[in-house]
Input
Amino acid sequence: MTNHVAHLDKENQTNKMVNESLTAELERYKERIAIFEQRLNVDLNKREKLIDSQMGDLIRDRNAKLVAFQQEIDTLKETLSNNVKEKDSLSKTLTIFKTESKEKESKYWYRYQEKNKNKDKTGQNRARDRKEREKTRPTVPSDFIGPACNPLNGPDQSK
Output
């Protein structure tokens, strides 16, 4: 039995040494894991910061482009609105000019017709007056006035 107790003590000491060795090795592994986790956290923090920075830059660029695009849209809307207003104004002006032109054309056409009526009347009057003058023209003997003064003979042919 003493042998057996000695043997168990020996085994117990061996187990204690293995246990201490394994505990020390476990502590080393735990420290290495803590260091790796810390490095990983540091790497992740750096990467997260880098990604956050890149995302912030990307968002600012997109927002700047969006603002520029919105300003361009607003400028185009304003230009289009001005063009529509100008077109409407020109259309109204053109309509006014057409109306005035038609009124003037009608006015001048009326005057032209009145003038032609008067011309016709005047032409008829002239023809009638000429016939009446021919009827009422006194006959003057050509030897009394002389050939140079007779309007019926034309220009002076004696010279």
